Amino acid sequence: MSGSAAEKYERFVASWFASWADELVTRADLQPGSTVLDLACGTGIVSRAAGPLLGPDGAIVAADLNTDMLAEARRHPVADAPIQWRRADAADLPFGAETFDAVLCQQGLQFFPDRAAAVGEIHRVLRPDGVAAVSVWRSAEHNPYIAALADGLGRHVSADARETMLAPCCLGDPDELRELFVDAGFSSVDVHAVTIEREPMDAIAAIGGNLAALPIADQITAMDPAARERLIDDIVDALADHIDNGRLTSPNRAHVALAKR
Ligand SMILES: C[S@@+](CC[C@H](N)C(=O)[O-])C[C@H]1O[C@@H](n2cnc3c(N)ncnc32)[C@H](O)[C@@H]1O
Q1: Structural domain boundaries, residue 77
Q2: What pLDDT shows up at residue 103?
Q3: Mutation to probe ligand 1, out of 111, 134, 169 (largest number of atoms < 8 A from CB)
Q4: Quick one: which atom of ligand 1 is closest to the CA of 69?
């Protein structure tokens, strides 16, 4: 599969995350004219959902540590609201105190090496009545699709490959998530368990595309084609309950934390 890792992410992952982005901006109750930080923006899927809600009097700053992700993000227009793309580390944000009405962070917090510092920074850059809306996957036992890919990778590639696939689920404990915001000084924190059924799509295309967008994609590409086919067959078998006529639809489960400064 050709293209940079960021291109592959946009092609195979961002489409999956689009309904989650709609969910996040709805729960954050974004108002027209607001100023919003999309933290760990990746290729900009959350910013694209937020733009039409904010309108031309609003503003988005979309920040990510990875310049390749930002370069890919710039290729996709954000409707209605002006946007600025910035390289930034979540643990040391280059923005003044009380700059934003809302901070959105979709599937980013679990990857930050210093989560407490990042949540402290989110608190610092929010205005006094501002809100943080942050989503992270629940544990793999609640996410059969992720679990099936991880188990297949463990059997056919390596224990490390399995761990890579499970990494997005590493902050699945709702109490741990809530405590990060309480400890940072947020006045109220609600953690919601949310399930979104993935739009039905061709199972082989979904699984193959997902494997191609992983950080370990090179290892999978380097596999003997027959072995790679066995890996995909194994994952398809594990997901049999979620596949109908070759079309996959599976429940994806995340926690969405809504924290008021
Ligand atoms: C799974 S992606 C999610 C991207 C995007 N929010 C989305 O919903 O598609 C995780 C993102 O976190 C970014 N990231 C990881 N560590 C970071 C850090 N310390 N500061 C800022 N961004 C970081 C990565 O570069 C990546 O783009």
Answers
A1: 5-141+168-199+250-260
A2: 98
A3: 111
A4: 27
For residue 66 and ligand 1, the question of a CB distance below 6 A is answered with yes
Distance 127 CA to ligand 1 centre (A): 23
The reported pLDDT for the residue numbered 9 is 86
Answer whether residue 229 is part of any domain: no
Model pLDDT, residue 16 = 83
Q: How would you label 223-237 residue by residue, b for 16+ Cβ within 10 Å and e otherwise? A: eeeeebeebbebbbe
Distance 134 CA to ligand 1 centre (A): 12
Instruction: Give the chain's domain count.
Output: 1
Residue 45 in contact with ligand 1 by CB distance below 6 A: yes
Neighbours of 215 (CB within 10 A): 11
- Distance (angstroms) between ligand 1 centre and the Cα of 248 equals 26
CATH number for the domain spanning 30: value is 3.40.50.150
Atom 14, ligand 1: residue with shortest CA distance:
40
Residue 11 domain flag: yes
pTM for this prediction: 0.94
62 is a domain residue: yes
Instruction: List Cβ neighbours of 230 (8 Å cut-off, separation of 6 or more).
Output: 156
Return d(Cα 169, Cα 240) in angstroms, integer: 22
The pLDDT of residue 11 is 83
Low-confidence ranges of the chain (pLDDT < 50): 1
The C-alpha atoms of residue 109 and residue 106 are separated, in whole angstroms, by: 8
Identify whether 116 is part of a domain. Answer: yes
